Amino acid sequence: MKINQFAACRVLQVLLCAAVLPVHAAPQFANTAVIALPARTASQLQEEVNRFLNEWHDDAAHSRLSYFDKMTPDAVYIGTDKTERWTLDEFKTWAKPHFARPSAWAFKVNQRHLQMTEDQSVIWFDEQLTTAMGLCQASGVIRNTPQGLKIAHYQLSLAVPNELVDYLGKAVRQWESSGKLPAGDVK
């Protein structure tokens, strides 16, 4: 049986986040008020969360600064580059020139999966997106605050076919060591 390396890595990443996030995030969220969501069915909450996330992506697509209001003050955004781990304030600074354009960026959601705590106060999700960079995958954590749903953590990554992983790894290592791509690359 051939193991899908990407799928195995994604499962490991999710398991590690599930094990590490509660331990390391607890101090981060210590001053973040959490309230239980009003009583609703899981289906109703899914609709609300999907609407919220779709609005968040739409805010970026139309360069609306309300995009940042949908994040907790201590939110973390992890982009696709190894240097891109930002606090909310750092992310706002980085994104400022993008939000000065008519569209900061546009992410079209292809699919999304949601899970939540029993009391529905914390929701985590993953989504597959069509972007200008190509197919991306993202995961995030949403908390409920006195101001409503807020994104506390978001991580964006490029979706790379398993058949290209070795080649891509070689290209990244060469780029980092020499600033050049391997010979014969399609640009």
Task: Tell me what you see in this structure.
- Keywords: Signal.
- Residues 49-161 form the SnoaL-like domain.
- The protein has one domain: Nuclear Transport Factor 2, Chain: A.
- It has 187 residues and is of the alpha+beta class.
- It contains five helices and six strands; from the N terminus they run αααββαββββα.
- It starts with a helix and ends in a 9-residue tail after the last helix.
- A six-stranded mixed β-sheet has the order 2-1-6-5-4-3.
- The longest helix is centred in the N-terminal third of the chain and has 24 residues, at 5-28.
- β4 and β5 form a beta hairpin.
- It has helices at 5-28, 42-61, 66-69, 88-99, 165-178; strands at residues 71-78, 85-87, 108-116, 122-131, 134-145, 148-158.
The H/E string reads HHHEEHEEEEH
Helix/strand/pairing category? alpha+beta
- Number of beta-strand segments: 6
Question: Taking Cα atoms only, what radius of gyration do you get, to the nearest Å?
Answer: 18 Å
Number of helices: 5
In whole angstroms, the N-to-C terminal distance is 34 Å
Give the number of domains: 1
Strand content: 25-35%
Q: Note the overall shape.
A: globular
Descriptive key words:
Nuclear Transport Factor 2, Chain: A, Nuclear transport factor 2 family protein, signal, 5 helices, NTF2-like_dom_sf, 187 residues, SnoaL-like, alpha+beta
Concise description?
With 187 residues, the protein is of the alpha+beta class. It contains 5 helices and 6 strands; from the N terminus they run αααββαββββα. It has helices spanning 5-28, 42-61, 66-69, 88-99, 165-178; strands spanning 71-78, 85-87, 108-116, 122-131, 134-145, 148-158.
